[in-house]
Amino acid sequence: MFSDELGAGTHEPLLAGLNPEQRAAVTLPEGHALILAGAGSGKTRVLTTRIAWLLQTGRATPGGILAVTFTNKAAREMLTRLSGMLPINVRGMWIGTFHGLCNRMLRAHHKLAGLPQAFQILDQQDQLSAIKRLCKQHQVDDQRFPPKQLQQFIGSCKEEGMRPRDVPQHNPAMRRQAEIYQLYEEQCQREGVADFGELMLRSFELLRDNDPIRMHYQRRFAHILVDEFQDTNRLQYRWLKQLAGDEQNGQLRTMGSVMAVGDDDQSIYAFRGARVGNMQDFVREFDVRQTIKLEENYRSYSNILDCANALIAHNARRLGKNLRTAQGPGEPVRIFEAASDFAEAQWMVDEIRALTSAGMARQQIAVLYRSNAQSRVIESALFNAGVSYRVYGGLRFFERAEIKHALAYLRLLENVHDDTSFVRVVNFPPRGIGARTLEQLQDAARSAGCSLHDAAAQIKGAAGAKLGGFVALIEVLREQTQGQSLRAIIERMLDASGLVEHYRSDKEGEDRIENLHELVNAAESFVVQEGFGRDAVALPLDEQRGSGLTQSPVSQGLDPSQPAAGGFIDQDTGETLSPLVAFLTHAALEAGDNQAQAGQDAVQLMTVHASKGLEFDAVFIGGLEEGLFPHDNAMSDQAGLEEERRLMYVAITRARQRLYLSHAQTRMLHGQTRYNVRSRFLDELPQEALKWLTPQRAGAAQARGGAGGGFSAWSDAAPSRFGSKGEVFASPPVPPQKAQPAHGLRVGLAVFHTKFGEGKVLAIEGSGDDARAQVHFPRHGTKWLALAVAKLTVVD
């Protein structure tokens, strides 16, 4: 017997060191089971030990186990651990990702699957290139149907198990997309290639439509184990059901045993198609009788876990568990309220320095943020402080593609002969200027000894007309931005270039648009920090020279360290730079080499999404404000808000020893300084586990009419500024009014605004001319309105 070969009765060492819940999960008898594995509870160890135990006790053979992971790294780790536990060859075992296992199945049955034996796999970039070829061949309007949007449409259809004939065709646009999907399928079949979505869908159809194949795998895989079950999408779950049993008359008759391991509290990938409801469907459809909760956490101290437990308890749709630890309470969770996002970043830098001085490695410190755009201020503070950092799983702010595109346009406004910038954006967003046209242009420029900009007039025909259109765009922009402030220049460029509009059609473009708006903030901050003043005019260098601004500042009676007439005097050269030139120089320097490479001792910066599966000794979570975390886009419905809360839960549980939370009273948003209400998530944490580093003021709970602390005032807060519609920008907190207000408003009243429509009063502050109200408008979101400017009418 197999168990004799491995030594029957010797399985006890495998179980050594497991806690009671882990041991129970590893030694479960046959049957379907759900393992709710909390953060830091050792689920990888449980999964691997379960496989080893099944093999060692003779309950399964290596060929009778199917284990599904979500990353190749996780699959390799599982195989490595297994080979260290048992004297078996693990190479032939079916352990891998969904796509990897589907590829293996399709290779074995390529004829039945309708694929050539040596079919090739298209990665995301290859797939996009194939779609672009298709669109060009069939004259698809790429303005109306951008290739990337088509790629996302096809991927979404496949995730839902839909072929072109299954796509609902409610309108002409949907019909056209379904037609393109059909053409794409025919092209892939003709070329013998399959994209990632096709691997999953084709494998599902193979099992669904071939009874002998399906029954073969059902008999073969007596034990199916699935890691990160909360991240499965609809098609992946249906694929697993095909392997586990047959549906007849709506009832699932299963064979073998399925063990689903996951944590519904860490389901944060709905935007990628993950469906947290799969866990509850699994319990119901597989008639799961055995559920084990792994609640002992080996990562964090109890103050951190108490915060995680209290927060996630506010979610209604969860299977429920509570993390615990034997490590003791540890340090309290520290909460800091900053006057601004710059003050928040500087506080982080000061705390990071204190931690490293106490002996903590920089690579064990992580700064997490909800939006990529937040990293810019933090990067700037770290850069200026000389603290090495690394943006995990992404690029630094000034290295991101959308920012480099925007900077290229700005460089052309300053210098039309910058060929590098010209090449970068001449066809971005797409204008139908292809590689062949660029080759012609470069040849013409070489022959004439001039820049690409100047050579454009030499290209004739349709290609020349398109190049001429781009050159004209730059010239008009240069003219329109003369004498404008740096912020106005960037805003005008973003609008005229079409960058923002281009990214609106991208499924993942929201982040890029936020980054482009953050570039406006970066410019606004730069001119203030460098002493230009917000409204400093960015004159072209030739105009500055003409005005004599590059003369010796001393000879002009000026302080050499101060800005001059819209320019800034370079301390090394004495040259006066316009704000635009100075900002472009600053951007180039910050994109330098202060970021450490992987493996070096550096502070780790990342989004909360990117942090899943990682852990650090100290974690900073910034920007805990309503509209940012939780994000504006998720606050309109309960499901979205619960996903945001799960995201916060993931962020909290990354911390081992120290957890720092922060929010800012004011934050630059789209070039304007806005007053912020602190995140409701801070009000959901247990007070006994917290240490407030600044006096508490009213948070989200009070703003919504609930209980809250008192206000703290900041002496350096900016004075109030009213927008044209009565919106308040950069206004400091005003003490709560005590007397009956003259405006007659109170929390809970329905009001009407001439632009924003009907809304509900959430909070009121100040008196007289300083009075303002926070009002939620269903169609326009939550706004602070100055009551002296915004005439609100009470709705009966």
Question: Would you give an account of this structure?
Answer:
With 796 residues, the chain is α/β, with parallel strands linked by helices. The chain folds into five domains: 205 residues, P-loop containing nucleotide triphosphate hydrolases (Rossmann fold), CATH 3.40.50.300; 68 residues, Arc Repressor Mutant, subunit A (Orthogonal Bundle); 195 residues, P-loop containing nucleotide triphosphate hydrolases (Rossmann fold, 3-Layer(aba) Sandwich), CATH 3.40.50.300; 139 residues, PCRA, domain 4; 74 residues, Thrombin, subunit H. 42% of the residues lie in helices and 16% in strands. Strands 11, 12, 13, 16, 17, 18, 19 and 20 form an eight-stranded mixed sheet that branches. Strands 3-2-6-9-1-10 form a six-stranded parallel sheet, with helices on both faces. A hairpin with a 6-residue loop joins strand 14 and strand 15. Helix 18 crosses helix 22. The radius of gyration is 30 Å and the shape is globular. The chain starts with a helix and ends with a strand. The N terminus is likely disordered. This is DNA 3'-5' helicase. Belongs to the helicase family. UvrD subfamily. It catalyses: ATP + H2O = ADP + phosphate + H(+); Couples ATP hydrolysis with the unwinding of duplex DNA by translocating in the 3'-5' direction. Keywords: ATP-binding, DNA-binding, Helicase, Hydrolase, Isomerase, Nucleotide-binding. Its EC number is 5.6.2.4.
